[in-house]
Every structure is written in structure tokens, then in C-alpha cells.
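Subject: Sanity check before I submit

Could someone independently write out the C-alpha cells for this chain? I want to compare against mine line by line before I put it in a report. The sequence has 212 residues.
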Amino acid sequence: MALFTRKSTAATPTATPTATAEAPAVDPALAALTGTYTIDPAHSSIGFTVRHAMVTNVRGSFGEHEGTLTLDGTDPANSSAAIDVKIASIDTGIADRDGHLVSGDFFDAEKFPLMTFRSTRAEQLGGDTYRITGDLTIKDVTRPLSIDLEFNGSATDVYGNERVGFEGSTDILRSDWGLTWNAALETGGVMVSDKVKLNFDISAIKAATPQA
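---
Independent answer below. Compare away.
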């Protein structure tokens, strides 16, 4: 996942008449972020917002998810991400609504317990904004998805864990993944919008480097 390609602020060396173009200098601070990270579910959220009855928004989240980020601070094109989300952990604050969402009308969680994302490409859009593209699988449908992300930085927490953080969102049409249930309203329109906004707020912990 190309989350860490910042432009170096170091001065550009003066070229000699015979000098050739050189690759941009690698920022040591970014290079130090290279490694494998595990998403910390206690400090991360994966959620959604969907229009309900044409007049308001319903927000929900998935309480159980796991994933890894493999980051390369010297060559972000080598970075990748993988996330698994447990559908049965959906929470909108209303038990009956959650039960409907995990039923066959929507996610059919008993038959398809996981929603998954596997990255295939990443690019920098400018500054600390990035776009990661990959394959999102819901039920038995896999389609490409791009997510715009903001890199929130890195830090060492009070327990000595090295962390990175990012947040982002993207819009999807749920019908593209076979989530087509709906109900017509007497006043026109439908009960649940097709467009759904997915929201990501991720904190990930760097794995310890194995001792030689």
C-alpha cells in the first residue's frame, strides 16, 4: 500500500556537465516504516453509511475484522494490503435491523461469512493522499474497488508498539455485489439506497523484526 511516498525536502545536488539523472533520494524516516503491520481492531473501525427511506442516513460498522499491511517505504509499489471482515459482526444499533442485514435478503452471513479485500495497486494522488485499488469480495461476487486514503502518520505508543494510521472512504453500489433487496415507499422512492459509503479508520502495529 503506497501510503508513505512523501517528497524529500533534502536539497537537490548540483549536477556536473557529465552527470546523469538520478532517482529521488529516499527519506530515511519513510524507509524505516518498511515492514509488516497487523491491523489493531481495538483502535480501528470499518463502517458504512447508507440512505434510509430517502430522508436520513443509517450508520453501521463491523466489530470483527483483521488484516495485514506490507509496507515498503523505499519502493511503495511493493506494498500490499489484505483485510477480512466478519459479516455477522455488523452493528447498526438496532438488533432487528442487524438480523435482517445478515439474512439471505442481504449478506447471507451463514453462507458467506466474510467480506474480503486484497490490494492489487497503489498510487500517490498528492501530498499524503493515496489511492489503493484491489478486489472486494462480498458474498460470491468479486469486483475491483478503489479507496482514497489519507496517511495520518506514524508513532510509537506507550507500550513500545510502532504504529501507522490512515483513514479513507469510497462509494459503492451495493447492487454490484448482489445486495439488491429493497422495498418501495408509498410516497415514492425506496427504503434503502443503492449507494453505500464505506469508511475506514485504521491503526496498524508493526511486527517485531526476527532476531538473527
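---
OP: Matches mine. For the report I'm noting this point. The two ends are 27 Å apart (CA to CA).
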